[in-house]
């Protein structure tokens, strides 16, 4: 299994541009999450999904959109990039909701908005 | 709202020392707690997961304990090595309607020098 994969690894955007961060998992996990990590900080939840077709907002959803058309994929869309969205973005997944189920993280996408 | 705090923010120790990293959380109604390791510029690697019904978990030189009632967890690293140098993050899963969402601490930056 490749686990959780993310593309691209790095990206530089200009203010106002749009882009989609891709996330794919091959573990048949139901739950998927998008977090962002600002320098020297922990991770904050942007959006999450409990299954195909079901998404909900996390702690910091403004400026982002998500969709979940398949179990495997959970893309994150930035519509009008702003410097405040400069961050490292991590996608994560877990099989099901339960005390014994750990989350697995992708390698991250480093985004700079200039 | 759940808040997670990690102390110390940074720690520098000589090789061979035993060390303790601390994590505290404000709401004791948690499902589980995960400890992660993050190398510079990399993603998160899960080290240990402790379920709310457990007191501790061990993996090799790592031992994590959980005291839910006092809102604390510790990660004990025995016989530290330079390869242990990384940022260590703890994250709590609040259970209930949180659907597996994790709340992270800001991390402890560990440096083990030869």
How is this fold's topology laid out?
The complex is a heterodimer of chains A (114) and B (114).
Chain A: E1 4-7, E2 10-13, E3 19-25, E4 31-37, E5 43-51, E6 54-57, E7 64-66, E8 76-78, E9 87-94, E10 104-105, E11 109-113
Parallel strand pairs in A: 2-11
Antiparallel strand pairs in A: 1-3, 3-8, 4-5, 4-9, 5-6, 7-8, 9-10, 9-11
Chain B: E1 4-7, E2 10-14, E3 19-25, E4 32-38, E5 44-51, E6 56-59, E7 62-67, E8 72-77, E9 86-93, E10 102-104, E11 108-113
Parallel strand pairs in B: 2-11
Antiparallel strand pairs in B: 1-3, 3-8, 4-5, 4-9, 6-7, 7-8, 9-10, 9-11
Structure description:
The complex is a heterodimer of chains A (about 110) and B (about 110). Chain A contains no helices and eleven strands. Chain A has about 110 residues and is mainly β. In chain A, strands 2, 4, 5, 6, 9, 10 and 11 form a seven-stranded mixed beta sheet that branches. A four-stranded antiparallel beta sheet of chain A has the order 1-3-8-7, with no helix packed on it. In chain A, a hairpin with a 5-residue loop joins strand 4 and strand 5 (about 45-50). Chain B is mainly β. In chain B, the strands form two sheets. In chain B, strands 2, 4, 5, 9, 10 and 11 form a six-stranded mixed beta sheet that branches. Chain B has a five-stranded antiparallel beta sheet with strand order 1-3-8-7-6, with no helix packed on it. Chain B is built from no helices and eleven strands. The interface of A and B includes residues 33, 43, 101 and 106 of A.
Outline:
The complex is a heterodimer of chains A (114) and B (114). Helices cover 0% and strands 49% of the residues of chain A. Chain A is mostly beta strands.
């Amino acid at each position: 299994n490749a686990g959780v994969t993310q593309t691209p690894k790095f990206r530089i955007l200009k203010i106002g541009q749009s882009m989609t961060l891709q996330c794919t998992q091959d573990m048949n996990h139901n739950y998927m999450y998008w977090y962002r990590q600002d320098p020297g900080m922990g991770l904050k939840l942007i959006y999450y999904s409990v299954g195909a077709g079901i998404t909900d907002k996390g702690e910091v959803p403004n400026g982002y959109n998500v969709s979940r058309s398949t179990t495997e994929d959970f893309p994150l869309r930035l519509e009008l990039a702003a410097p405040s969205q400069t961050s490292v973005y991590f996608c994560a997944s877990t099989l099901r909701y339960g005390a014994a189920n750990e989350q697995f993280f992708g390698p991250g996408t480093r985004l700079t908005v200039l | 709202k759940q808040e997670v705090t990690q102390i110390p923010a940074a720690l520098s120790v000589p090789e061979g020392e035993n060390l303790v990293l601390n994590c505290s959380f404000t709401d004791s109604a948690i499902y589980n707690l995960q400890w992660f390791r993050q190398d510079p510029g990399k993603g998160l690697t899960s080290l240990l997961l402790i379920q709310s019904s457990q007191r501790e978990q061990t993996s090799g030189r790592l031992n994590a304990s959980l005291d839910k009632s006092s809102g604390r967890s510790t990660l004990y690293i025995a016989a530290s090595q330079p390869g242990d140098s990384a940022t260590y993050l703890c994250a709590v899963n609040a259970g209930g309607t949180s659907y597996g969402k994790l709340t992270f601490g800001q991390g402890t930056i560990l440096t083990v020098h030869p």
